[in-house]
């Protein structure tokens, strides 16, 4: 047994971020990865692009003043931090066959196979990362899963930065969180918990720590955000797992010093468990979570307490005076205090100074990732010398006060309307009444087919939008091009035999931004990209004031599309919760108040769609699960206002108007009551990657309205075969009454190409015919 060697005694940096955007300021990583997937560059070129991005990020953070050893977080990933951990552990599900090479390594192609699937296997399931709009790939762990150190990517990334003069702080998802985020593999016995494999993965973590130490790392960051969530497993079992995990890891020979981070909320009871271990630093989120008491912090001893006082999840300027007060509390209770963000800033854009199209007033209210680094530095200087930071603190206080009284932040006309709402504004007729009216109006066949809304956004569509924005294409020319695309989409659906059609949304850059550009109280960015999953990036809008609609937004497009067909055309809207979840939302009033303002704007839009002859209207809420509080005690309040805002938006619709909603990539069983409470006539839900898991929740709940569990995973380029779709539909029919079932993809088709989309939708239509025929035969 090797002799234990004490970790390096390098102080934890006084100021650092928990993480930083990794896609590049101009989405360089997205472009490189997608070029590799398309065969336009080779692995060497992809590696060179990745190294350039890593080094650019590290140097930028040093330019922002994070110059101490290990102050720069090494949070690069080609796709996803959880997938990275799966790769390091070699935790390849057996259904993929042999992905590790002869040397036991998982190369870049095998890594992307787990993320994107192949012709025979669907990729790993995808779901939301805590209460963010980031998605991670869910590990599949069973008793049979073999673990081996199959990747040294973290070591290689650290060594590359060090060769270029920057000592980063490598980042890995912690062992307890990794297993708590995992699902049992298909072959696992009933009741199997992935956490039971903790003892088997810890030796791999130890190997990785020792390799990082050998490469020169003085600190490593292990993220344990699952410890701020109420889990289904007993608390004592999780406490025991945390204690055991960090007993083993801190006993590793020649290890780096270990920072355990706990973003997205309060550690509560797990604080004492971690404080009692031999880790060297503990990060706590004191922006979203409460400041722990001195008694709770007493067990830290000589460990460094890393205070997450700057919000890493939203873009508003920090109240430096309030943060300084929190630091004063912590300084009196902990031996050593450092300053950081509450979460990784991967959830916010790079630099507000690049958004020159925003007013100077609005920019002064905002802090993107670079500005958050500056705020962390100011607060670290406050700890060292309060007087030196006072001018910056006073400036922040003045700006926050000016925001409260700025024009448009509070509008009396908007507030008078929300204050006048009564219970009658939140409910429709009984479903049985609506169902009969809709059957008479729509006359749909069994297992009606539809899509979720968007169709592929071709380079020609994106070019036309950009040229119109620049004034190079007139509004009339742009509208003609969009109508041509709408006709193409409608004709394709007619040819494929779909029952309820969509117009394809070619005019929309993003399902939230499109509405933000047409509602008052919002602004949009030019360079404000954030990563949603893999290479998928979005630009969240900024919701800064009271929200109202001054004119119809979607009506002319839906009306034109309906004129092209005798079949029902769906009006397509984004729901209030999703508009909030996928925007950077004002933090100066309860979210429920803002949601009701958006709900009323959508209610007006629905009325105008009905007046234009649209009989089916979809109000998408893919983010309903996303904002669910991580602590169970807080969930009922959230679900009340989120469901109410949807009902407010839709309750004005006539009985014969069929209201659809859509949800994707969430654990639906957790919120099945809320989904039912939305009272939508038809709900479409992601189900292909999870291989129809959701139908068991629907069956046990007794869900009684229309439902479309998705049968085509649009987040992968693979084309599902007719037999595969038939099998999924057959599974659904076994658990949900066929009269309720709809057939649809998992989500919108915006990110796919036309060739794969047409083939997939054709297979979906053929499979539907097969299952319909079986139902008719069984009914004879």
Give a verbal description of the structure:
With 780 residues, the chain is of the alpha/beta class. The chain is 42% helix and 12% strand. The protein has 27 helices and 21 strands. Strands 1-5-7-8-9-10-11 form a seven-stranded parallel beta sheet. It has a five-stranded parallel beta sheet with strand order 16-18-19-20-21. Helix 24 (672-677) links the parallel strand 19 and strand 20 (682-685). Helix 1 (28-37) packs antiparallel against helix 2 (43-63), helix 11 (320-331) packs across helix 13 (369-384) and helix 26 crosses helix 27. The longest helix is centred in the C-terminal third of the chain and has 26 residues, at 754-779. The chain is globular. It starts with 27 loop residues before the first helix and ends with a helix. Mean pLDDT is 95; it is low at 1-5.
What topology does this entry show?
Layout: H1 28-37, H2 43-63, E1 72-74, H3 81-89, H4 108-116, E2 126-128, E3 135-137, E4 140-141, H5 153-163, E5 168-173, H6 175-181, E6 183-184, H7 198-215, E7 219-223, H8 235-250, E8 257-261, H9 270-275, E9 281-285, H10 294-297, E10 304-310, H11 320-331, E11 336-341, H12 360-364, H13 369-384, H14 386-404, H15 412-419, H16 431-442, H17 459-469, H18 475-496, H19 513-516, E12 520-523, E13 530-533, E14 536-538, E15 541-548, H20 555-562, E16 570-574, H21 576-581, E17 583-585, H22 591-611, E18 616-620, H23 635-650, E19 658-663, H24 672-677, E20 682-685, H25 694-701, E21 706-709, H26 722-735, H27 754-779
Parallel strand pairs: 1-5, 4-6, 5-7, 7-8, 8-9, 9-10, 10-11, 15-17, 16-18, 18-19, 19-20, 20-21
Antiparallel strand pairs: 2-3, 12-15, 13-14
Helix pairs in contact: 1-2, 5-7, 7-8, 11-13, 13-14, 17-18, 22-23, 26-27
